[in-house]
Amino acid sequence: MSRNTANEKDTDYIEKLVNVNRVAKVIKGGRRFSFSALVVVGDGRGRVGHGHGKAREVPDAVKKATERAKRKMIRVPLKEGRTLHHDVDGHYGAGNVILRAAVPGTGIIAGGPMRAVFEAIGIQDVVAKSVGSSNPFNMVRAMFEALSSAASPRQVAARRGKKVSDILPRREEVKETQE
């Protein structure tokens, strides 16, 4: 039995190549070049992971990053299978991200690496803003910190020892407060 049997049967993953860098190691005879790849992998239904791989050739770096991403997947609770339940923010290094839930039809309003993560998760409606570092590695790590802190009303209710109906305001109460 090989190590990759779990990865071979799961071929329905969405793989997004976020970034490829050429990096150099200085040695006695000059510079030795290699490639660094950042990949995001998701199932389109709320599971997503990210991986970083380095190798002498780009395809090998991408393959390593993809394998690591599949091993480091997290589950993100989705509201109606299309957006987040609530606004979240994440921080990693100098990168800050703010992720906001959106109404149907909004689309993915996010730039660069954040868009790749949302497409891999399967989120269709979200507004995201990156503040600070525009480094793709920091942005993706900050996003994963934010997404791992997202919780569904059921999870919040279980953590607080209450019922879901106690957590969510009723529609009548919301209408009264708006008037």
Descriptive account of the structure:
- There is one protein chain.
- With 179 residues, this protein is α+β, with helices and mostly antiparallel strands.
- It folds into two domains: 10-74, Double Stranded RNA Binding Domain; 76-165, 2-Layer Sandwich (Ribosomal Protein S5, domain 2), CATH 3.30.230.10.
- Helices cover 35% and strands 33% of the residues.
- It has seven helices and eight strands; from the N terminus they run αβββαββββαβαααα.
- The protein has helices at residues 5-9, 58-71, 113-121, 136-149, 153-160, 164-167, 171-178; strands spanning 14-27, 30-42, 47-55, 74-75, 88-92, 95-101, 108-109, 126-132.
- The strands form two sheets. Strands 1-2-3-4 form a four-stranded antiparallel beta sheet. Strands 5-6-8-7 form a four-stranded mixed beta sheet.
- Helix 3 (113-121) links the parallel strand 7 (108-109) and strand 8 (126-132).
- The chain is elongated, with a radius of gyration of 19 Å.
- The model is unreliable at 1-8 (pLDDT under 50).
Query: What is the mean predicted local confidence, pLDDT?
Result: 87
Order of helices and strands: HEEEHEEEEHEHHHH
| Number of helical elements | 7
Q: Roughly what percent helix?
A: 25-40%
How would you describe the oligomerization state of the chains in this entry?
single chain
| Tally of separate domains | 2
Alpha carbon gap, first and last residue:
65 Å
**CATH class descriptor name of the largest domain:** Alpha Beta
| Coarse structural class | alpha+beta
| C-alpha geometry | elongated
Number of strands: 8
Percent strand: 25-35%
Low-confidence stretches: 1-8
